[in-house]
Structures are given as structure tokens and as C-alpha cells.
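User: quick one, fold this
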Amino acid sequence: MKTKRFLNIGLAGLFLANVAYAQSYQFDFSEKKKVEKGVIQISSDSIYPCEGGYGYDFLPAPVKKSNEPFFFSVDVPDGNYLVTVTLGNARKAGSTTVRAESRRLFLENISTRKGEFLTYRFTVNKRNTIISDGEKVQIKEREKNKLNWDDKLTFEFNGDAPCVASLKIEPVNDVVTVFLAGNSTVVDQDNEPWASWGQMIPRFFDEHVCFANYAESGERADTFIKAGRLKKALTQMKEGDYMFIEFGHNDQKLKGPGKGAYYSFASNLKYFVDVVRAKGGIPVFVTPTQRRSFDNSGKIQETHEDYPDAMRWVAQREGVQVIELHDMTRVFYEAMGVEPSKKAFVHYPAGTYPNQTKALADNTHFNPYGAYEIAKCVIEGIKQLNLPWVKYLRDDYHPFNPASPDKVDTFKWNESPFTEIEKPDGN
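Assistant:
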């Protein structure tokens, strides 16, 4: 492993113009002697940023017969991109996992026999910090290295034997975009062994749905607004898009006059609803994930005070649909049990990861298995609401019951090359 080093018509028009003028790319990784016109042949010398703004990134270019993971980046404007990837190799069998941006999962453990090629399509959202001329999202210092906030679209090809034959990237503006607003339980976590449901959920939908994850560790509803994250999301939102809103973990820590679940928190939630609807979008509240906090009888203790109820109260008053993730995660943790539930969180003995001198015992943040299962909880909530784009679930998605979670030993995860042992900034 290696350590990873108000909206106006003009802004909406700027986004549409970016999509309209975004270039399409088709790359060939197969080492053919000759490729079709318009196809860019990639070699070991194609190192980002080579002429044209693309190339292997972060890690060395893969060598022949290598089974090491690799990254590939392309400079593109903000927007949604339809990705068509063909996996396989004429000379060897492969097992490939595909992520984009900050470990956003799209394809996992795709097996190909020698000489077999399989093609998949998905849609990924790319963004930078620019809101308008002179205005940017006020990201945190540590976010400046995040793959989500730059001018390039980055892919991670991982797995036991990653084999990529071709990659096609096309701008698209006719898919449902689901914007995610939240904290570290939702964010695209950059480093192993942390993970969140927001970076797992894209794996379960086909190319007709795109998840744009704007969540960030430590954020409250008010700080998400003040930093310009909401305003930036609105520059990309079109009529009919959705925004899933999950807050509460950090909001409950804010004390003082005028604060509280039914005061400033409720007002901020109402602001989210108003501005999203003004843009033609559809807000959906997601009640916060439970913490792993058991009582002596093996039941989850309520640690969120009245913040989940405040979300429900605003939702009822404003006619907003709610995904009850708070309740489903309680069922999930209790079904696993007091000790086994540690396997869904960042609980690891000292020395499990490089430079990890102390044991990790985090009862708020998930590991990849936990995040993967909680993403399924969110999907079950989407199904319960019967949101129209639920029909775009992939064929390999199976109904999930939080009371009967999948076994940990059936879950296989290809760890990212990026590992950094530090506690995320807040929840």
C-alpha cells in the first residue's frame, strides 16, 4: 500500500455550456498495432498530464503481465459522463474492480477468461470547486488532495488481476442525478479502511442514474451551506434531479441560544428544501445512521437526541419523503450482535495497516463491508418510496433485509492503494 500524498440563470447556462462543449474520449489499452480513427492508443509512456490532458496517474503505468492496480485520469469540464469500459485481455484471465474519483465504486470483481471481453456502462459525476467567477467552494485544507475536487476525472482499476481493454467517456445530461448532502457517514472516504454508503451506492445502479456525492466529514447542515457546497451542487442540478440530505451527527454538537434540533437545524433543513425545489429538484431526507452504542441488553442506544425526529417533523410539514436509515441501521447492528457488529465498523488491531501503531475502535464510521450493507439499506428505502428511477437497479441487486445482513465472509473487497491511518474529521 502507498500513502496518498443565490443561483441564477447565468450559472445554470454555464453548466449546460460546459456539458455541450465537453469532449468525448475513447482510449485503447490493448496494445494493438493499429486502432480505429479517433481512438487514442495508451502506452506505458502515457503519463498524466501528457499532451491532451490524460494518462496514468498517481502510480506507475502497469507493465506487461502486471496484476497491480493503476489509476487513469482525464481532464474534463464539470458534469456527468457516460463511461463505457471493456474489461478483458487476450493473453490472460482477469478480475477487475472499477472505481472513480475518491473510491466511488462502480464495478466489482468482474471475472474474464483469457481472450474474453465484457463491456459495462455507468455514469459518473465530476466537479471542481468553482461556483462562478470569483466564487469557490470553501473546502478544507485536507480536501485539496481529494480526487473529487479537481479538474480531472480519475479512474481506479483494481482487483486480483485488473484487465482493461478500452475506455470511452462521453458527456451526458439526460440521466437522473442524485446529489448527496451529508457528513462522514455519506462522504466518499479517500483512505482505507474507512468507507461510507455514499461511495458504495453507485455500484447498484446502471448508467441511467448518476450519484454526485457532495458530502464531507465534519459537516453540519449549516456549514454545508456556508461553505458553498449546496450552491455548487445547485449549479449542476437540473429539473427532476434529487438531493438526498442526511445530517444530525455533528449538528447535535452545536449548543447555545437559537441552536437545537427544532431551531437552527430545522431552519437549515427547510432552506435545503426551498432552494432545491426552486431549482426544480426533489429533496429527500435520510435520517442519520445509528452509532454502534449498545446497552446491557444488546439493544442500540439512542445517541442522536431529537435530531431524527426533527427531520421527520420538517419532512411532514414540508411534504418531503424520508428514508428511515436511522431505524434500518439500528435493526442491522442489532441483527449482527454486539461483538460481530464491530466487523461493520473501523475496528482493527494495531499493525493491521501500515503505520498503524494503535488499535482502531471507531463506532461511528464504517469499513467497506459496513458501508456496502448500509448502501443496501438506503436502496431498500428508495424502493419503499417507489422513486421512479428505482427501475434502474442493476440485475444483480437482490432484495436486502437489514434484519438478515449478508455475512462478512462472503464480502470481498479490493483495497485501494491509498491508506492513511488517521481519524476522519468529525462525523
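User: anything notable?
Assistant: Residues 1-20 have pLDDT under 50 and may be disordered.
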